[in-house]
Amino acid sequence: MDRHERLVTSLGPGDFHLTVDKFPAKIDSFWKEDGPVSAVIVFDTSGSMAPALKRGRDALQAFLRQEYPGDEYALVVCKEKPSLEVGFTNDVSAIAASPHLVATKGKTALYDALGMAMHVLSEARNTRKVIFVISDGIDNASRIRHQEVMRMLGESDVFLYAVEFWTSAQMDDVPPPRSYLADFADLTGGVYFGEVTPNEFIKVLSRLDIHQRYLLTFQPRRREGDGRYHKVGLQLTGDSRRQKLLLYWRHGYRDRDSAPAE
User: Fold this and answer.
1) How many Cβ atoms sit within 10 Å of the Cβ of residue 203?
2) How far is CA 113 from CA 146, 185, 195, 207, 214, in A?
3) What is the dihedral angle through the alpha carbons of 252, 254, 258, 262, rounded to the nearest 10 degrees?
4) Is residue 3 part of a domain?
5) Distances 96 to 41, 72, 160 between C-alpha atoms, Å
């Protein structure tokens, strides 16, 4: 993406430098893909989201306006006990008009909601899978922990995108140096939007394109078959580097026969 969060579609394999576990890796193939997605929307309706509920619904509408032929969407409502309120459907109006997005109440089990979203995606029809989170990032009721969510996402082929709203409920705590939602997005090659002003976030979301991506494939240096996690690094080179583009990619994989960087 460029500095205005617009997708750059003119890059080629020579614009990238790829490393695996800090060793240079040869890019075997490179192509651009454009196609439908299976997306699970995780919408936080816990009590702490009350000041941001309207902005959250606006963000949802902006996201759904990207609808593409063949897309399917599901809705997981995040509250003290998360629930799947809309299963996979091609009808985005069923998501936008859900009666479960009009009021806030109770504690927040955000990590449990993300675990539920991962389970829902196991039934997805499309190969490109997305979780879109709308939340203030608070979790005070989950059974699973942050580290378990990181493990599940890191071992999956899911891309996580998140819009995080800063709410008054967070003021009693010292804010973490980095949002967990930002960690989740970075790990999967998704995009995190934090502290986006009300006048800007709809424009930003409208430019986000979850349907297009570059695919780079490579052969690992060796395969030990021990299930070890391998870190993938990606940098821009030449003119692309000088343009100061924003780069998002999956940061690793765990012992697969093929290992695409996306």
Assistant:
1) 12
2) 12, 15, 22, 26, 29
3) -20
4) no
5) 11, 13, 20
Q: Are 160 and 233 members of one domain?
A: no
Residues 196 and 75 in one domain: yes
Q: How far apart are CA 252 and CA 229, in angstroms?
A: 7
Per-residue pLDDT of the chain (262 residues; tens, 9 = 90+): 777 667 788 899 999 999 999 999 999 999 998 999 999 999 999 999 999 999 899 989 989 998 999 999 999 999 999 999 999 999 999 999 999 999 999 999 999 999 999 999 999 999 999 999 999 999 999 999 999 999 999 999 999 999 998 776 555 554 545 689 999 999 999 989 886 665 666 677 766 789 988 999 998 876 666 678 889 999 998 776 666 788 889 988 887 544 456 6
* Whole-number Å distance between alpha carbons of 45 and 78: 6
User: CB–CB of 179/138 below 8 Å?
Assistant: no
- Say which CATH number the domain at 158 has: 3.40.50.410
The encoded tokens of residue 18 equal 């790829």
CA distances, 155 to each of 110, 118, 185, 186, 248 (Å): 19, 11, 14, 14, 17
Answer yes or no: do 170 and 104 share one domain.
yes
* Counted domains in the chain: 2
Domain membership of residue 68 as a residue range: 36-207
- Is residue 27 within 8 A of residue 216, CB to CB? The reply is yes
For residue 228, is it within any domain? yes
